[in-house]
Amino acid sequence: MRDVLAGLTGFRLLQVGAWGLGPSVLDNAATLYQWRLACEPWRCGDIGFDGVNFPIASASVDALLLAHTLDLASDPHRLLRECDRVLSDSGQLVVLGFNPLSLWALAQRLPGRGATAFVHGARFYTAHRVCDWLCLLGIEPEQIIRYGVGFPFFGRGVRVPTDQGWHRWAAAAWVAQAYLIVARKRVTPLTPKRWRPKASARKPAHVGLANHGVGRLNSRR
Question: What number of other Cβ atoms are within 10 A of residue 75's Cβ?
Answer without folding.
Answer: 11
